[in-house]
Amino acid sequence: MLAFVVLFAVFGFTAKHAQATAWDRAQAIASSVERQPEVTVFAEQPLALTGNGVACFEIRGSRYTRRYLGLRQLFHGNGYYVLMPAGLDAAHVVTYVLPEDDTLRVEYDATRSRAGSTPARVVRSPDGVIC
Fold first, then answer.
1. How many whole angstroms from its chain centre is CA 26?
2. 8 Å CB contact between 65 and 45
3. What is the pTM of this model?
4. Is 64 left (phi over 0), alpha (psi -120 to 50) or beta?
5. CB–CB of 5/13 below 8 Å?
6. Measuring CA to CA, which residue among 58, 63, 59, 49 is closest to residue 118?
7. Which residues 6+ apart lie within 8 Å of 126 measured at CB?
8. What is the pLDDT of residue 39?
9. In sequence order, which residues have a C-beta less than 8 Å from that of residue 107 and are 6 or more positions away?
10. Which of 18, 33, 41, 118 is deepest in the core (most CB within 10 A)?
């Protein structure tokens, strides 16, 4: 019985510690989003990335048919990019996890990695293709 109580207490402590650590990391990321690098994503297929400040352009005659602007990289590793719209909107928080593979190309743009420098509207291609 004592072993059960000890084991239960250890699990409870571990859960509380994990929750506190996750909350601290989330707050650190949220406070530094505007300082994260802004990226342009080129994709072979439509990705339907949306959000405040995200713009999509169709590219004709290229391997990559879509170009997405207005995204910031939160994390890159383990074969994935974690991105979010550069225009912060607390009411509509969106995070995208994209695979690091040959169907995507991600470019970093230091000249647009400042707060308030993102496109202001979503752009659709002239023929109505949804990006």
1. 13
2. yes
3. 0.67
4. beta
5. no
6. 49
7. 58
8. 95
9. 39, 40, 42
10. 41
Burial class (CB in 10 A: 0-12, 13-18, 19+), 123: middle
CA distances (Å), origin 18, targets 9, 12, 13, 74: 14, 10, 9, 20
CA-to-CA distance for 34 and 38, rounded, in angstroms?
Answer: 9
- In this prediction, residue 121 carries a pLDDT of 39
> Taking residues 55-75, what's their average pLDDT?
93
Query: What are 71-119's pLDDT values in tens digits?
Result: 999 889 999 999 999 887 777 778 999 999 999 999 997 665 444 444 3
Eight-class DSSP state of 37: P
| Tens-place pLDDT, residues 21-49 | 777 776 676 667 778 889 999 999 999 99
Tokens of 116: 């308030």
Q: Which of 104, 22, 32 is nearest to 73 (CA)?
A: 32
Question: What distance in Å separates the CA atoms of residue 59 and residue 118, rounded to the nearest whole number?
Answer: 20
State how far the Cα of 99 lies from the Cα of 85, in Å rounded to an integer.
17
